[in-house]
């Protein structure tokens, strides 16, 4: 059976109602068994030199194949699987803890997206400190799949027909639960009536959210918008191609990176939207989540605010808007930051790790 047929077979088995109750109770274990049943033999037949697990759910399979082939095992931990949003049910969390405790020490190299997560994994599982690869875009465009393309969309301000005299602040990423977007609407609404702000930006605040949308979250945001007087422009913008997002947001004044530390993975998070803003050269207004706050302060990228305090969010926004020129980087400094944080810089660390195997 070919690999595509095996993928299709895995999809059918995962959806089969006979396994539904078992999967709900023992999701991690059932996915592991299904993946191994579908893929393990064919992957082992390939006799790979390196097996790279790109997600926690595939780690046991990757470890089994690596062991059978005497291959090196690489694991990419995108977030803290045991502290993700929404929080895992107790039984599933214990399954994930068990699998990570069993398989992480077997990995020859582990990558993750931030220093706090790296430290947590090192301490919890008594492993070598994972290598940090920031979730950054490339500094130059790159080829993408045809289905990802969004043609003739290169300037968000032009697309939204926002005129001079309006302050445009953008959020990149899905409009979904627990992102702090509701707090952002409240905080920006509070800032919009500031007299000094209105004098400098007579056309007010426009807040654009770029990405896929969860209808329930959109409804909640729109309800808050009405409640707080509809004194800001609110825009829900369709997703932009991943290789075009940096250029697309360059005509915004600033980017906002909210967040609610409901789970440790969010508290330690280093989201791609942060690095998109850096490469676009836009000042950042961000929730003071642990590592994100430090990166913004250390590199003078913008202003942080207490995550669940909308008054602080309003004050942070006004600090950037009223002192805007001080937050715009010189071309030389911008280029240095791009070189430091772009994917090409992360790629060098990844390749060095592979060469060491």
Automatic annotation (TrEMBL):
Residues 28-132 form the Glycosyltransferase subfamily 4-like N-terminal domain. Keywords: Glycosyltransferase, Transferase. It comes from the Bacteria. GO terms for molecular function: glycosyltransferase activity. Pfam families: Glyco_trans_1_4, Glyco_transf_4. Gene3D superfamilies: Glycogen Phosphorylase B (3.40.50.2000). This is Glycosyltransferase involved in cell wall bisynthesis. It comes from Litoreibacter janthinus.
């Amino acid at each position: 059976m070919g690999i595509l047929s095996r993928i299709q077979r895995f999809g059918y088995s995962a959806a089969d109602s006979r396994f539904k109750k078992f999967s709900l109770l023992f999701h991690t274990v059932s996915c592991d068994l299904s993946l191994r049943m579908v893929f393990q033999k064919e992957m082992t037949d390939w006799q790979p030199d390196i097996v790279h697990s790109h997600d926690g759910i595939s780690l046991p399979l990757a470890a089994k194949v690596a062991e059978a082939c005497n291959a090196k095992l690489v694991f990419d931990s995108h977030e803290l699987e045991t502290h993700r949003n929404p929080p895992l049910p107790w039984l599933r969390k214990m399954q994930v803890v068990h699998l990570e405790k069993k398989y992480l020490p077997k990995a020859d190299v582990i990558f993750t997206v931030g220093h706090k997560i790296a430290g947590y994994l090192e301490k919890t599982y008594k492993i070598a400190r994972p290598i940090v690869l920031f979730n950054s875009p490339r500094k130059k465009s790159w080829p993408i799949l045809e289905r990802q393309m969004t043609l003739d969309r290169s300037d968000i301000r032009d697309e939204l027909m926002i005129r001079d005299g309006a302050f445009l602040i953008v959020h990149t990423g899905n409009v979904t639960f627990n992102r702090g977007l509701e707090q952002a609407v409240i905080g920006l609404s509070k800032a919009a009536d500031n007299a000094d702000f209105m004098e400098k930006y007579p056309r007010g605040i426009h807040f654009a959210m770029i990405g896929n949308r969860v209808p329930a979250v959109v409804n909640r945001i729109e309800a808050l918008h009405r409640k707080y007087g509809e004194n800001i422009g609110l825009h829900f913008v369709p997703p932009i191609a991943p290789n075009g997002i940096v250029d697309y947001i360059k005509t915004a004044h600033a980017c906002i990176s909210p967040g609610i530390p409901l789970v440790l993975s969010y508290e330690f998070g280093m989201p791609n939207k942060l690095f998109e803003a850096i490469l676009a050269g836009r000042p950042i207004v961000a929730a003071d989540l642990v590592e994100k706050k430090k990166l913004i302060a250390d590199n003078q990228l913008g202003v942080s605010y207490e995550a669940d305090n909308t008054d602080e969010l309003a004050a942070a926004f006004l600090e950037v808007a009223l002192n805007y020129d001080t937050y715009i980087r010189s071309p030389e400094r911008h280029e240095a930051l791009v070189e430091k944080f772009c994917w090409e810089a992360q790629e060098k660390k990844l390749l060095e790790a592979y060469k060491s195997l």
